[in-house]
Fold each of these.
Amino acid sequence: MQRKYIGMQHDIIKSIKKLKKGDKCHPYRFIIEGHWDHEKVMDSRVNIESLIVCIDLIKTPFEDSIYRKCLAQANDIYYVSEKVIRKLCDKDKASGLISICTLPHFKIDTEMSNITKLIVLDGLETPGNIGTIFRSCDGSGIDAVIIVNERAKINSYKTIKASMGGSFTIPWYFFDSAIACQEWLVSNGYTLVLADPHSQHSFKRVNYGNKSALVVGNERYGLSKDWNLENSLKVSIPMLGKCDSLNVGVAASIILYEMCIKET
């Protein structure tokens, strides 16, 4: 099969540059780069919409095997020069593979029966923190992520990359507001656990229940004021040193594991 090469002015290349920042209109569409990420999508629900290949940068047997697997799964395939792909990559060592990917549109009401443990991200704005939480959700066995007051795009390249594959396995859902989210959680029998560094209740002394939702807030301002404390528990992680709190990604990870351990 003859390979068709495209250049920087092609529409697909232009769309990659835009999608790296995240597309709010298409929240389940994103970019992946490198053979490791492409290997991770093989066993996930991720669909490779468009595969962009630089043959000159595929040099090892492992890279060639991933490339051939992607060829079988991709809807569309484009070839580019090394010069083009280096302009698309963020790092010095460019990869031979870049893809535009999509996930199914998750509908929480139809998948609710499978969701017992989840986390709500209220206004998080740092891609690294969001990616860390997705990675911890995958590792700890959390079922889903809910996003309210979105500030950092969940489908930006930085967020997807930081998740280390967690974004490929953990479904995410959006609510228009914290109030709407809280109403849905309460009506469906979830115990709401609000992470608050000022709380006097340790995260280890909480009965999380069979269905629980951890809520974490913005890195600077914390949780929005819309959360009703009458329907929730506030917990903190004891700090034994001089710092008054942990990074939100680290704190969320610690509590998520506790939620799952107590369930078992």
Amino acid sequence: MPKITYVAADRSERTVEVARGTSVMRGAIAHDVDGIVAECGGNAQCGTCHVYVAQDRAAVLGPPAPDEDEMLDFTACPRRPDSRLSCQLTVTDALDGLVVHLPERQQ
């Protein structure tokens, strides 16, 4: 299974195995990773699974869909060029080793 590393705002890290076809958000929820709230359950409607991803993974991830792009304008912490909603990031073998940084707050 691909491994995803979640880096909290305090810089503590947690690396977990996430099943292919699952979202980065679901991987965090399944492993009790603090910092992902996921109020809407993965429907890109709340922005509480906001993460920052490394720019070198942008090509693998592709651009955000229009609904994700719009929701990123309403996240609790500032949107940056590397902002994504983790509910919209489907885990594949190409994401093995992905590092996502969690913002200071989600709400």
